[in-house]
Structure to design on (221 residues):
């Protein structure tokens, strides 16, 4: 308790908004990895535990959308499916700085970083109806593995701007309605696409965080 009291008075926290775009990678639409086509927004909180790493929590909302007419594959063009699926994620993870990052050091301006963790997802169950249209059927929860790369720099002593690209590998295959059996469809709705691959989605965006807290003595960690 004494150790915690000593260090908790000398932590650097960051909080701010997230703004960017999202794109889907699955059995509907284009297969480009970085192709943001829908607004994504949310917020981020960081707890800088050392010069090389910090804990972070983000919450981001978007509407994933894809259309076969935007695909480079002729079979998808002819099929003509499209969907929109709202998605909110809560991510808790760790951020590693490539170089030592001291927000209070006026001589240090920029560093690349990597981040990973675990992501919880709130989205919707989709299925292909009798009119060959992808329709929504209730809320669903799931998990994803985030893989983020970014670069951040100081605007002022207390403002940090970061730009990052993050891929989310989900553990299921029905963000686009291609495999409704995963969500209890029991074969009532047809499946399509590749059943051996899971859905992915991407976020490309930036954060602007405000730094507060006393400068820590990192050598106590």
């Amino acid at each position: 308790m004494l150790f915690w009291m000593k260090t908790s008075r000398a932590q650097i926290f960051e909080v701010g908004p997230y703004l960017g775009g999202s794109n889907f990678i699955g059995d509907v639409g284009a297969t480009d990895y970085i192709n943001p086509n829908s607004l994504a927004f949310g917020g981020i909180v960081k707890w800088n535990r050392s010069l090389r790493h910090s804990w972070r929590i983000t919450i981001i909302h978007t509407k994933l959308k894809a259309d076969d007419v935007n695909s480079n594959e002729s079979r998808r063009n002819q099929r003509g499916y499209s969907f929109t699926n709202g998605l909110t994620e809560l991510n808790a993870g760790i951020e590693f700085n490539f170089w030592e990052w001291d927000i209070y050091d006026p001589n240090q301006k920029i560093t690349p970083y990597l981040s990973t963790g675990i992501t919880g997802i709130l989205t919707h169950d989709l299925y292909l109806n009798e009119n060959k249209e992808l329709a929504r059927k209730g809320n669903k929860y799931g998990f994803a593995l985030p893989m983020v790369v970014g670069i951040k720099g100081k605007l002022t002593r207390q403002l940090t701007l970061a730009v990052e690209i993050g891929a989310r590998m989900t553990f299921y295959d029905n963000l686009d309605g291609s495999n409704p059996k995963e969500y209890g469809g029991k074969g009532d709705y047809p499946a399509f696409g590749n059943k051996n691959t899971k859905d992915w989605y991407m976020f490309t965006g930036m954060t602007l965080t405000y730094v507060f807290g006393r400068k820590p003595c990192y050598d106590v960690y």
